[in-house]
Amino acid sequence: MSDILEVTISHLATQGDGAARLPDGHTVFVADTLPGEQVSIRLQPNGRGQLVNILSASPHRTTPSCPLFEQCGGCTLQYMDRPALLAWKTDLVRHALEKAGFAMPASISSVQVQPHSRRRADLAVRRTEEGIVIGLHAKGSQTVTDMTSCAVLHPTIMASLPALRTTLRSLNAVHKMADLQINLLDSGLDILLSTDSPLIATDRQRLTALAEDLNIPRISWQRLKSSAPYETAVQRAPVFQTIAGHTLTPPPGAFLQATAQSEQAIQQSVLDALPARLGKRASLIELYAGCGTLTLPLGERCQVQAYEGYEPAVAALKAVGKSRVTPVCRDLNRQPIMGKDLGKADVVVLDPPHAGAKLQMRQIALGKPDYVVYVSCNPAALSNDASQLASAGYRLETVSVIDQFLWSAETEAVCAFKRESSRRSRNALSH
């Protein structure tokens, strides 16, 4: 196993590792490589290749911008320039849809966000002999790398980490570990802290002082691995976020699209995917609505029945009080909307979690609404789900790729599907 081989990387696999063909015909995967590169590798007992040397570098190879590259598990592809990264992610989506059975449209639109723009962070906290470590797990490890630098997070989030380290070190509630969810809202930082020990009175005082120092409107708390709901530890000021001109109060740890730029790109792609003659009386069913990232702009176009399984998110959306939006709390993976109801809608829009739409997708295929707009954050799940639409007689109209997860293997896509033969006229579209 110590023999060194020279191979040529043919392509990148779905997780970003380079793939090369060995002399015996087997494929070996090698991290930190790019297509077209000639490299020397050492075969490992697990069948993977360990990069020894780059003999001929790709023109798309670049120097990683973050000093924590290879220590932090967040940006595994920083050695690839951004145009090549976007092209690869576009190819991932194209391949997923072709595998599902669709012919691709003539062109695919694409958008890539800027560095230092991510407004959401889900960070691990560990107490060490040296102090508090806040960051991400190193690739393939339980070790947390202290996030002293980051090329993707918004500067406001990064600027808060030193004070957070100091405060968390003083908390009795952080015995060994904690989780830290940070959202940068229009009202400022919104923090959800999950700790392995109870929050005591002095902890609350220290969190209040932190909120005062950093001008944080709200800090919420919950016990790690507990089914108990979160509670408000500090509330100094109103918490709000504006979506499509509507102001709402997201629950702690609420899901937001990764950046403001990508949120706008996804919203616009979904709106552009709607039938051109869709009228304000037309009916649209939205699945996995969250706090209303798509619901509220869709409500400007037509009547929207928005389904979401997380009750606090539904409550936030209901509080907006938009007349053409009806939010409904329902766990779609356990209790999907049935095909007979979906078939009555003029359009179905869905933005499922990473694993895909599961049982709900089967009902969409059975109901056969004329238009389906699918927002995906996982090409593999998109391929599985979209294959049911292909079998049900849909064609792929448009595809938009939004790279909002820079230098990672994750990508977002908005795909518009239309039934090849409509079973009935849609008079409501023009009303």
TrEMBL record:
Listed GO MF terms: 4 iron, 4 sulfur cluster binding; rRNA (uridine-C5-)-methyltransferase activity
Family: Belongs to the class I-like SAM-binding methyltransferase superfamily. RNA M5U methyltransferase family.
Pfam families named in the record: TRAM, tRNA_U5-meth_tr
One example of a Gene Ontology biological process annotation: rRNA base methylation
Keyword S-adenosyl-L-methionine: yes
Keyword annotations: 4Fe-4S, Iron, Iron-sulfur, Metal-binding, Methyltransferase, S-adenosyl-L-methionine, Transferase
Organism from which the protein derives: Acetobacter syzygii
Residue stretches making up the TRAM domain: 1-53
UniProt cross-references to Gene3D superfamilies, sorted A to Z: 2.40.50.1070, Nucleic acid-binding proteins (2.40.50.140), Vaccinia Virus protein VP39 (3.40.50.150)
Binding site for S-adenosyl-L-methionine: Q257, Y288, E308, D351
Active site as annotated: C377 (nucleophile)
Protein name: 23S rRNA methyltransferase
